[in-house]
Amino acid sequence: MNKRLLNIKELSDYIGKKPQTIRNEISKGIFPIPRIKLRGALKFDIKDVDDFIDGIKREVN
């Protein structure tokens, strides 16, 4: 079974952006991927992450 919710470290590895950069963008309100707060921890749905990446690919093409 694949994991659907990613923490910041896993998201960082998946999209190639440093965890601190992700945190900074979240605090500035400019991080484009929706997040979920689950038991006090930020989580990111892999489907939202993939949708974001697909959107970038469409913009480039």
UniProtKB/TrEMBL annotation:
Q: InterPro entries, from UniProt?
A: DNA-bd_dom_put_sf
Q: What is this protein called?
A: Helix-turn-helix domain-containing protein
Taxonomy, top ranks, is: Bacteria, Deltaproteobacteria, Candidatus Zymogenia, Candidatus Zymogeniales, Candidatus Zymogenaceae
